Amino acid sequence: MLDEKELDGLIRLVEDSLLSNLVLGSVDPADPIRVDDTPQGWKLLGAGNYAGVFTHRDHSDIAVKVYAPGREGWESECEVYSRIGSHPAYSECYHAGDHKGHFYLILKRLKGKTLYQCIIDGVIIPQKVIADIDEALDYARLRGLHPHDVHGKNVMMQDGRGIVLDISDFLKEEPCTMWDDLKKAYNKIYMPFLSKKAIPVPEWVLNGVRKGYRFVRNSSVIGRSS
């Protein structure tokens, strides 16, 4: 946890060094945002449909999530972090701010390897990782949240334990079966064939599986609604 002096210094660094010089592009809400320029000293960790996530070379344990202009979700994510509080399987929000139209969060940085990347690299995923994530999602439900969009790229393994990377959609109330579907694949495919001696799986194979899953899932949703 950061003390008040450390947090004040980080806020100044973020607002003066990152946000004052950051150029984010928001072309289409259906596509990831575009980071046109990353200020010196900062590194882009990733970009999604709503925001970019950055870290500073002198503060590698901190991640700064900056929402692109016109993209919604900042207020909802603030509420989610407020309800989550402190839990070992989740990040923690140290500060939420608005600087000259840039809405941002200063977060504890989660370090590890996504389960998606573990399969690509041939890294064995212990059952404890799955159990940890299950427990973390139950914890979120007890706080009135609705785990949503929990899939292989949004959960990680760190030192043999499971952690949840992205909780920005946990206020959405519509059902989401992604995590249950991933667990079924883990139990029926991964455990029998890859858990003893994991081998690298080419990313193109996983992408094919992911696209096939989306097709089947969307088809089943259409079938239920017709």
From TrEMBL:
Residue span(s) of domain Protein kinase: 39-226
Record's protein name: Protein kinase domain-containing protein
SUPFAM superfamilies assigned to the protein according to its UniProt record, in alphabetical order: Protein kinase-like (PK-like)
Parts of the chain that traverse the membrane: none
PANTHER family documented for this protein: SERINE/THREONINE-PROTEIN KINASE YRZF-RELATED, SERINE_THREONINE-PROTEIN KINASE YRZF-RELATED
UniProt cross-references to Gene3D superfamilies, sorted A to Z: Transferase(Phosphotransferase) domain 1
GO molecular function (one): protein kinase activity
